[in-house]
Write a structure and sequence with these properties.
Layout: H1 5-8, H2 23-50, H3 54-75, H4 87-98, H5 122-133, E1 144-146, H6 150-162, H7 184-190, H8 201-206, H9 212-218, E2 239-241, H10 244-253, H11 258-274, H12 279-295
Antiparallel strand pairs: 1-2
Length: 304
C-alpha cells in the first residue's frame, strides 16, 4: 500500500490569500462544517461496507463526497448554495476548477488484489453511487446493486477531491516572503501523492494507533493506508436488493389475475395515504393503479 504523504510531510500548505483577508476564518468554517463531517461519513461508510450494511455504505459515501466537493468549491470562491445534493452536478463544477488534478478514469490500484474490476469514469461511478445512496433511497425505495470494487473507487474519489480543499491558485506562502512561491495547484500537480495535513478526523484516526475506526478506514485502502499497516482479507463479490415496492405493489398491480391486482391496489392505496414518497415513485404507482383498474374494473372496491 502506498504511504500517504498526508502523514509523512511536516510542511503544511496553509490557505493564504491577499484578495480575501477573511479566507482563514472562512476556512475554519468550511473545515468544521464540511470536511470534519465528511471525514466522519467516510469512516462510517467503510465500516458499513466491511459489515455488509450496504444501505449505509452508499448513504454515507454520498454524503462524504458531497461535502468534500462543496468544501473544495467554497475554498475556491464558488458558492454552493444553489447546488442540490446530486453528485454528478457538483462534480461537473469541481472539474471546471480542478481540471487535470482529477483522475480521468478510476482504474484498479496496482497494489490491490481483487478478483474483478471494471474501470469507470468518475462521472459514471458517481452516477451509480448517487443512484444507490441518494435521499430517495434511504428506505430502499429503489434497492441497490453493489460491487466489491465500489468501496475502492470511493477511496480514490475521496483522496482525489479532499486534497483539493485549498485555494488552488493562491501561493503556498505570501509572495512577500517568497517571490517565486508556487501555487497550491502547482504543488499538487508536481506531487500527485501529496495531501495537505488538515488535522481532522482522518489524520487523527490514521495517526492514533490501533482501533476499530482505524481498521475500518485503512484496511485494503490503497489511497490512505501507511506502508506498515497490516491488511486483512475483506469480503468480495456483488450484492443486490430489489425494491420491496416492486415486489409487493407494482408486480401485483400488473397481474393478469384480479385478486392479485386487488391486493396490489389495496397496498398501493395504503402506502400513498400513509407515507410520503418522491414524486416519480408516487406517479409510477398511481399510473400502475390506473392501468390495473382499467384492466380489472372494481378492484378499488371491497371484494364481494
Amino acid at each position: 500500500m502506498a504511504t500517504p504523504t498526508v502523514l509523512r510531510r511536516t510542511t503544511y500548505l496553509r490557505p493564504m490569500s491577499k484578495s480575501d483577508p477573511l479566507l482563514p476564518y472562512k476556512g475554519s468554517i468550511i473545515k468544521e462544517m464540511y470536511l470534519h463531517t465528511a471525514d466522519e461519513n467516510y469512516v462510517v461508510a467503510r465500516w458499513a461496507h466491511d459489515n455488509r450494511l450496504y444501505t449505509d455504505f452508499f448513504w454515507n459515501s454520498v454524503h462524504a463526497l458531497e461535502k468534500y466537493m462543496k468544501a473544495m468549491l467554497l475554498f475556491n470562491g464558488h458558492p454552493v448554495k444553489g447546488h442540490s445534493h446530486g453528485l454528478t452536478g457538483l462534480y461537473a463544477e469541481v472539474v471546471k476548477v480542478a481540471g487535470k488534478l482529477l483522475p480521468p478514469l478510476l482504474t484498479r490500484p496496482a497494489n490491490l488484489n481483487i478478483h474483478h474490476w471494471v474501470d469507470l469514469k468518475p462521472e459514471e461511478f458517481l452516477e451509480r453511487l448517487d443512484g444507490n445512496g441518494n435521499a430517495d433511497n434511504r428506505y430502499l425505495t429503489y434497492g441497490y446493486a453493489q460491487h466489491a470494487w465500489y468501496v475502492h473507487m470511493v477511496d480514490t474519489m475521496v483522496w482525489s477531491i479532499r486534497r483539493l480543499a485549498l485555494p488552488l491558485d493562491d501561493p503556498i506562502v505570501p509572495r512577500s516572503q517568497l517571490a517565486t512561491a508556487p501555487t497550491h495547484r502547482e504543488v499538487l500537480e508536481r506531487q500527485p501523492t501529496y495531501s495537505n495535513h488538515l488535522s481532522l478526523p482522518l489524520e487523527q484516526i490514521i495517526g492514533g494507533g490501533d482501533g476499530d475506526a482505524r481498521r475500518a478506514l485503512l484496511n485494503n485502502n490503497c489511497a490512505f493506508a501507511p506502508d506498515d499497516f497490516v491488511h486483512e482479507p475483506r469480503a468480495s463479490g456483488t450484492a443486490g436488493r430489489n425494491p420491496v415496492l416492486l415486489r409487493r405493489i407494482l408486480h401485483p398491480l400488473r397481474s393478469d389475475h384480479a385478486d392479485g391486482a386487488r391486493h396490489g391496489y389495496e397496498l398501493a392505496s395504503w402506502l400513498l395515504s400513509s407515507t410520503k414518497q418522491s414524486k416519480p415513485v408516487r406517479e409510477e404507482i398511481q399510473d400502475a393503479m390506473r392501468d390495473a383498474l382499467a384492466k380489472h374494473p372494481g378492484i378499488d372496491k371491497p371484494k364481494p
